[in-house]
Amino acid sequence: MAKRDQPSLLLQTLDQTLEKGVETLTDDEKFAAFKNRAINDNEQTFGKEVREQYGEDIVNASNEKFRKMSQAQVAQLTALQQKILDELKPLVGTTDFNTPEAKHLFKLHKQFLQLTWPSKQYSPKAHRSLAALYVSDPRFSKYYEDGTGKNGAAETLNAIIRHYTR
């Protein structure tokens, strides 16, 4: 779905909500609205940079993949995001990435990307490229610093990803 179509999809969902009333929306309709809102929020926050980095087609395919996820898949993704933050926290500031903990964190992050990126889009180069955004863009850095409560979290994650994708 093109970026330009997202606001109309959100308006359509809003129209359905107003017509039916929030309480009469089905769980599936509420979940679809949740996913559309998450995509829109992500586009507002990071869309420009990610589209410049990866292109319209890949970002649109990734958004569509998320839109088609089941509640169980989204729950798995959310749990994985939290696990990444939890496992990153004790590693912040470390310089020894040849540890089971660092390798496991890398594998979790790779798994997250493989769940969210379009099929066959994952590559070590693309992974490194995304990790570079984590340190070059303060909004990405803030996500990891807020999530771990530690300054330097994005830098540590970037270094771990670079280490395991070389």
Automatic annotation (TrEMBL):
> Domain TipAS antibiotic-recognition: where?
46-164
Its domain of life reads Bacteria
Q: Which SUPFAM superfamilies match?
A: Antibiotic binding domain of TipA-like multidrug resistance regulators
| InterPro entries reported for this sequence | TipA-like_antibiotic-bd, TipAS_dom
Its name, as the record gives it, is: Transcriptional regulator
What organism does this protein naturally occur in? Answer: Lacticaseibacillus casei DSM 20011 = JCM 1134 = ATCC 393
